[in-house]
Amino acid sequence: MSHPLDSLVFINIPDSHDLSGFIAGFDSSIPLPVQLSAPGEKFDPANLSKEMILAGILTVFAWDQENAHLDYYRSLMQAAAPNIREELTEAAILKIRNGDFEMAEEIFRSLRGLDPDDVTTVLNLALLMDERADSMRRSGLEEEADAFDAEAFAHYRQAMAAEPPMPEAFFNAGYFFLKQKNFRKARQALEAFLQTETDKSDRTAERKERAKAIIEEISSRDLDDDLFKSAYDFITIGQEEKGLEAVREFLEHHPKVWNGWFLLGWALRRLERWQDARAAFEQAIELAKNDEAGMETGFVDICNELAICLMELGELDKSRACLISALEQESENTKIIANLGMVALRKGNHEEADGFFRTVLEIDPRDQLAREMLARDR
């Protein structure tokens, strides 16, 4: 597989060349990167354009951070395209909306190369990696999701260390840590957001209320308790029995916390103890129903896990009903739609199952499970 740098050639152009005029501070002794349309393409000097040079410089910014001439290339780019940061940021956001994560990543990496101290770009990279992790996890690609999570964490950490502080970084990192079930770090990040955010807009006021509500929920339920975090970590790394010990001890002190019952069910489900897991998830749903925040943050995940247990226990109608309830909350959740396809298969309804899997691919063309199921032997 070729690398983006493989499609570059470096050339020296003389002072007399027509293109030297657009370059402020031009130095003919420094080679310029030229972007070709494909690796191995033969370079024709007669076709050289300003755009090819600028595109080549952006590729160097993205993928060659050790290049000896970075400062020179930065000065060229800033002189030739003073609005490049705003234009490329808008382009990257559009790519993300269209699902072209790889191109968005390359654009943000180019912006980092242009200005390594730009914290906004660091945060944008964190948000992108965060979203890519979610996409991979929805597709059942757990290892790839974990890798993107690690990259997101590294970028969030860098953004949160910025001076002066960047409230936006703390707010988004807080939600990232919530998904990681790292409630202690989530609370710390959201508290830092509240301490550093001075904006008075309605949007910020709404964010502050959300942050306060999450902090209150974490505190009131002791979700930042070491036992809860230990249980989650043990289960994540495949040590479910140790996770069970920790979460059961947590539940002895907090029997009304739905998150604990969810964690218990998750460990039992991974151990294929379907009936025990079912009971835990049913308890989690009952507790979440009496908790507005629980219905917002946990209902879909609980329903999905419960549906898996019911499917394995042969209670297909109940499994389907669970998934439909979840789908009513999140109509484009590919994990839920794919599991509806699996239930249909268990019932022998192959056409219905294929319809669900095709819907998954319409939402996320990269979903590996849906592709495999549509390619299955009939």
From TrEMBL:
InterPro entries assigned: TPR-like_helical_dom_sf, TPR_2, TPR_rpt
Ranges occupied by TPR repeats: 258-291, 334-367
Domain of life according to the entry: Bacteria
Gene3D superfamilies, alphabetized: Tetratricopeptide repeat domain
SMART domains associated with the record: TPR (SM00028)
Keyword terms, alphabetized: Repeat, TPR repeat
Stated name of the protein: Tetratricopeptide repeat protein
Species the sequence originates in: Teretinema zuelzerae
Lineage, uppermost ranks: Bacteria, Pseudomonadati, Spirochaetota, Spirochaetia, Spirochaetales
